[in-house]
Amino acid sequence: MSESLIPKFDLSAITNKAELQASLVAWNWDFSLVKLEAPKEFNGVGSAISDLRKANAENGDLHRTARRLGALFEGIPPEVPNLLRAYGMRVSEICEMKQITPQDRVKHGLFSRFAGPDATSIWAAATSGDNAIAVHLLACMIAEMFEQASAISLWAQLIAQRKTQLEVEAANMTDQIKREAKLAAKMQNISRQDLAAWDNSARSWIRTADDAKSKERKRVMLRVDEVAGYVNKESDPYLSVMHAWKQAMIAMDNLIRGIPQRVSNGAILLGMSAWHLYPDMTVLREGPGLIHQDDCLIAQTGILTIDLEVRAGDSGGIRWSLPLSYMRYYGPPVTTDNRIATDNSRITMNQFGFVLIGCVVSQWYDFMRPLEKAIDMLVRLLQALQYPTTAESKNTEHIARMRKMTSRSSWIGQLLRAAEEFKEGDAEEKETAVKLINNLGRRWNGFLCEVEDHPPPVFGLCHMKNLFPLLANSEHRVSYLRQLAKYWKLSNSNCVIEYKHVEDGEEVWEYASIAPLNDDIKPLDKRQGYLNWDSNQELPIGRFVRWLSVYTNGTKCKCKGACLRPEDAPQSMSPWMSKNRVLRPDSTRPYSLPSLFKGKVDECPCWQTGGCGISCHNWTNTDPLGCECLHNGLLARRQRAIVAAGELCFLVHKVSAIEDIDNGRMTFGLDRDFQRSLRTFTLNKEARENALAKKKPVEALRNLPVTLEFCAGDRSTASILRRGDITISGIDPRSGRPGGHLGQIGEYLPAKVMESAFDPSHFDYLKLTEWFATKLRIEYRNYVRALRACAAAAELYTRLGPNTSIKASVSSKTRLSVARWITDSEGSGVSPLRTQLSRSEAFACIAMFESGGLNLDPVGLREVYAMSSGDSIFVSSRMMCDPYTEPFEFEIQRVPGNIGQPGLSFLVPPPNPMFKEQSENEWTVVSHRPFTGELEENFNLTSIHLLNTDFNSDVRGLGDTGYYIDREAALRETVVQVFDGEHWIGDLDVLTALNDRNLHRSRCKHTSEDEKKVRQTPYDQVFEDGEIIQIDNWDELLTETLDSNWAIVRASSRKGSQEETENWLARLAAATISVQLGKETIILPPEVCWVCVRRNLEAMGNGKVVLIG
Prior knowledge:
Layout: H1 17-26, H2 43-48, H3 51-59, H4 61-72, H5 81-98, H6 102-107, H7 120-126, H8 130-145, H9 148-171, H10 176-186, H11 192-212, H12 214-225, E1 228-230, H13 237-257, E2 261-263, H14 267-275, E3 280-283, E4 303-306, E5 317-324, E6 334-340, E7 346-348, H15 349-361, H16 371-385, H17 387-390, H18 396-405, H19 411-424, H20 427-441, H21 464-467, H22 474-488, E8 495-503, E9 506-513, E10 545-552, H23 575-580, H24 593-596, H25 635-644, E11 648-655, E12 666-668, H26 674-693, E13 709-714, E14 718-722, H27 751-757, H28 765-779, H29 781-800, E15 805-807, H30 810-813, H31 839-851, E16 866-869, E17 872-876, E18 892-896, E19 904-908, E20 942-954, E21 969-980, E22 983-988, H32 990-994, E23 999-1001, H33 1012-1015, E24 1028-1031, H34 1034-1038, E25 1046-1049, H35 1064-1076, E26 1080-1083, H36 1090-1099, E27 1105-1108
């Protein structure tokens, strides 16, 4: 348009912004394109954001949105110059903290332009005037409180109501200029897409700032959790938002000036959280003490007094409930009730371990009262799994197992490390952890699986059937049962411990008293007691007792000599007997064979039936300590060990013959002389058999055998048996499975016994690790399935970096039992400690934790190569490295930043990538010279960019039936484009190409030091001149070679290094295009072995092959 056609207005006569705006409207001028100079306090923002974001903020869509919103809401925000200055300084400070250096930006590859803090909306507002900055502050408040779909709907409703208000105001105005200004503001067209981008930028910024000010924010959130209040209780969304916005701005401006403020609602707390300005605080319900935050931007006298408290039945935090009319296309307003609190904020994956602890211990009942008791038990379990590092003898196999079991990428390690972190944390960290455990774990115990799928407390170890087989020896089991008996106050007269002892591969059953014998021991009667003694017999008071078993087993050996094992016979004393010969009583001199037995030395047939019985020998002239077959050959050794431990050792006679009327009955002796005990057992047995044969009553006989019943423990390893009442009072203290179950009475350890008896050094380490790795998974499949999935997520997030956060409320909004990214079918070689994820499953996993519950089907994400949300871009690692390296398929990297699209944006390639068409005039740059062996970096102008084609497809999660206008997630077709300088070369489908069967990597076979000379064979000694054609530009790659089927792309000059090549983006682009052209493609390593390259080429046959150098 020529200058003469522009209307000539005297702008000097216009005295205010409204007049200027109205005049510009009269010209049909788009004032939203006007860029103002940003206040100096915001300069740190302008220098930190990328060129792409800066262009959008100063001249693009986001700048126009900021200008239009500023004009639309002009006159509403109060004058708060101190707040605007302080906010500018704060955001500049954070931008400088989070700024990405040019060197780091290059590492982010094709996402380098999107890397760094997304302060686009801040800079757009700063270059649009004070009103726009104030509207940005409102955007932060809304983004802090509401989910994205609700926030966009709220903005649409605010704009509609503001326009209605402007129309009414304009109609009542007599000043024409002001009326035109009002109407001009009302005419602004702000689309829903513009609002989504505006909210997305503010939302991304809040995430970045929250991380930068994590300590201050944590301190504030702990205080917020202790109070309860609404932002306000206005039912009209417009009035509610305007009131909260103005109230928060005025209060914060006063605080910055040093004027104390007292609040009785949540508006100022919301503003403080959203704007990251932290005044000193006093919370009245906590007392008059001052909570120092030491924010240099706020005057020391600017103290915020919080006069709010949690009422009974209320949850802590700041709430805001609004009816939104623009959420759905059809239907009544949707009421959204949102809350700011620790359990509704973002946390790290390490902190998510506390949530899992809460889920796990929610079914521990008395084992977690108080909570610190459960934490202590988890820490002691960690010590048990770490025992190989503290053991005197280092077992390398055990140490290797320990590292796997206790890592955060192990399901049990994730929990135990979180418990350890809890114990080592400071007061504030523990307070936050307790809130996560209680509010997000214990309250939502169905997050992992159904309650009935949980194992008993302590991962099933309170169940003695599970615990006792994992202990290293029988003494530890006896220790548990003795403490259990003491806790229950069991009768020492009526209860005794039966346990299996294993030594040198032999198994024997032994018995132990539950407590030292004392004066309370009552003699055996018809219904009570197990000890065969009368009141005239002296009891060994004050010492524990053990009984070694001897049997009547229905067999009798005819050994005339020692009762030897079959392998230790025949005629002479074997090496086994030489090693195990027993000592004479009160002597260090062993028995000699002739003094034990006379006659021929033969094998004893009783070894086949578990050892000699009491009928095998004449115990009048045979010393039982000399019989190698009593108590499975362990009699003498066990007696010595028991006596050395300070306990008394006696014999117990047990009938173990089906045809015997006393089968299963026992007689407990109280004589230290084993020979005399055996004679007594034999005589008593004969007397009883004679009485029964003559049909005489046997009750009058002494030392009657007794039958014992199960009382508590594990029947297969160690248990307490009883005869009669188990307590003196007659009250049965036993219970079933914790939680009120009536079944399995006596099989579970009470919490206090577990706590006192548990010793990390008492376990058989291999069995303990096998319990967590395999057996628990078999018995409680759904429970371990969910925890293994969480371990996979932990491993995934470990690779994403420490600044990656997740939505804390994920446990309250979904259940892992229905999570579609958790697979039930896994291949061989998968770790039992965590689930193995595919790339699409990994993206679905991140989506769930990022959104706080979105449950997506991985099948619909198979083509996804990146995902953007908040302040993070999650990218397949294969897109971010040299094509020669091969990251695992599930590996994903995080780029700090945002692509500028709202919600969860999944990037997918177009179905058929295009290339530029070759022009007839481009023959001048196609040389195809013979390769001489020199690698050069000839693709320096190559760059890769992303282009959104505007084709989007909503992605619905499981159970998504809201029919809302703005969807939480979308597939966005985004083209990866290769440019040579300013010239477009083609589009890439990188992941498809990297998985193509035509893509190969040259592996060198000459790996030993002796073959070093072969690896270093010069090119000209392997290839003849002209065998390989060199490709030095994109046109040469797109043009078929004529003189040879072999060609090499010279994209990198680095040689002799195992590191990634410098120009990896060009190599990635060249490899992808070569595969997309249908050519066999071989990627060369940084250190090229030309001998192996030739071998690879010859294996390809006669087709076209492109080497990527």
